[in-house]
Amino acid sequence: MFERLIRNATIVDGTRAARFVGDIGLNGDRIAAIGDLSSATATQTMDASGLVAAPGFIDVHTHADGWLLKSPHLTPKTLQGFTTEVLMADGISYAPVTATTWREWVYYLRSLDGLAFDEYSGWRTIAEFLDRIAGHNVQNVIAQVPYANVRSAACGWGRAAPDDFQKRAILRDIRLGMEEGAVGLSTGLDYVSQCFASTDEIVAACEPVAEFNGLYVTHVRYKSGLMPALREAVEIARRGRVRLHISHLKGSSPQVIDEVLTYIDREASREVDLSFDVYPYQSGSTMLSYLLPYEVWEQGPLASVERLRDPVVRERFGVGLKQHRVDLDKIRIAWVASKENSRHQGRLLSEYIDERGTSPADAMCDLLIEERMAVLLVVNEGEDPLVQPFLQHPKYMLGTDGILCGCIGPMRSSDRGESQTGTSRSSAVSKQTETLRLDGRPHPRVFGSTGRLLGPCVRDHKLFSLEDAVHKLSGWPAERFGLKQRGELKPGFLADIVLFDANTITDLATYEEPLQPTTGVHSVLVNGVTIIDFGQPVSLDRLPTTLPGRHLRRGCDG
Predict the structure, then answer these.
(1) 374: which of 42, 111, 285, 519 fits an S-S bond (Cβ 3.0–4.6 Å)?
(2) With 50 as the cut, is the pLDDT of residue 488 above it?
(3) Where are the alpha helices (DSSP H) in 180-253?
């Protein structure tokens, strides 16, 4: 006897094993049995004929940190089948923070992760932050330790290397994060604070990560050149005795791609235990402030606006744009914080600059000042087929690098659906009646990544089998990031399950119309609770009072 029984599904179990038709019996939050369960009975039964059953998908590179705190259900992600989000990517997030640094981080991350000052509620540690999401969101979350957060807390925002006292503080905070269950240490060596960190400094920071067999997850120093940056990452992992994971790895041309993958196969993989992620698109997205010279950040994010008023800084910015040959005709304004400038969303930076009638540096600095640094970009980096060799590589797994834009507002009646439980979420929880209101022109990867990987990449381009694609979304990231008893359909494992139509699943989001959800996902279960049913989000008031998403910890059950 099962509580729930999924019958006649085509089971792709996340291990790369060949698909088979079978049944899945569920009790509570666990998978109780898989196979021919035709003689079994259940309280609830679902006929999944024609649907693939797969383990819940894991996004190993996401910028949903603030949005998961603000909104209980990120439908752009769950409609892709994502049941778990690995947070605190690129070495930057909302925790750990101090009484003085939290304002800096909320300000800096406004266009990336979404929080405003009045949404900070006093957390300090990573565990305190994730505990505010667990039970208040339908998805699971697990953290990395973001290096810039611990570095800025210990020694401020400037160029000076940490002294002995500050080094001990950094190691203490990283060790605390690992003890709390973080998967490893994340860096973004082109971003604030950590852009001033030397190779030796990062090697030293890996010491507590190695003690826990964690990952070193890195946005490498792309600004210094891809190959030197990759070699530095490998050196850090080798000297630090840690496993290496490279974030959003791509190449700008067939020649560069060949050089990168040859290096990974013939050299890097022999020196360190290596993996990488990327999304199935060639173009990228980041904050406009990413383009600024590093000196802007020397006194912290809150002081950056005043630095942008300095004519010397503007002159250096202009010189840098020319030296790096930044093509403003290939960069679009995706989102701005203010209503006044929202008319520029979707426009090329070059068009915006022409309208302003000033130099590129002055126009961009003025825009950043007006928007308090909260400007998001989408960058055309070439045609999407350029990323395909990376998607095919055995070391690859999917990370959307997805960035949401918008606000939280009242839930419309059309947002409501049906659920398997009559238990109501308490009316005292304000988020019961709130949902995402998205706007702007963000990168389509936040809506379409799994639809593209499971649909066109499998069916049309035949880059790999459906079994391989599911493994890249579930079993492989679960193994690599230490998500115990997840990532596979197996008796005793947690019931994170996606049901989708392999013949129709696809991405609809485009660069011109990015706010289009993936289609073809029928149902999504998180810890045994249905959050997507018949392709629609289940209404919050029909979900349990404690929502099914959990704070996961590296290597721990549950």
Answers:
(1) 111
(2) yes
(3) 199-205, 207-211, 226-240
- Our count of domains for the chain comes to 2
Q: Which two tokens stand for residue 467?
A: 């079994």
Q: Which amino acid is it at 430?
A: S
In this structure, the number of other CB atoms found within 10 A of the CB of residue 266 comes to 9
| Beta bridge partner(s), residue 146 | 186
The whole-angstrom separation of Cα 233 and Cα 203 is 10
Of the candidates 134, 41, 10, 53, the residue with the CA atom closest to the CA atom of residue 525? 53
SS3 content of the chain, % helix, strand, coil (to 5): 40, 20, 40
Q: How far is CA 48 from CA 17, 248, 523, in A?
A: 20, 34, 10
Looking at the domain assignment, is residue 386 inside a domain?
yes
- Give the Cα-Cα-Cα angle 536, 514, 346 (nearest 5 degrees): 150
Could you give the count of Cα atoms lying within 13 Å of 199 in the half-sphere of its Cβ? 14
Contact status, residue 79 vs residue 517, Cβ threshold 8 Å: yes
Distance CA 461, CA 458 (A): 6
pLDDT at 185 over 70: yes
- Cα torsion through 506, 245, 111, 341, rounded to 10: -60
Q: What's the pLDDT at 504? A: 98
Are residues 310 and 161 part of one domain? no
Q: Are residues 393 and 276 in the same domain?
A: yes
Q: What is the pLDDT of residues 341-366, one digit of tens each?
A: 999 999 999 999 999 999 999 999 99
Which secondary structure element, helix H or strand E, spans residue 391, and what is its range? helix 388-392
Residue 164: inside a domain, yes or no? Answer: yes
CATH of the domain at 110: 3.20.20.140
- Cα(258)–Cα(361) distance, integer angstroms: 35
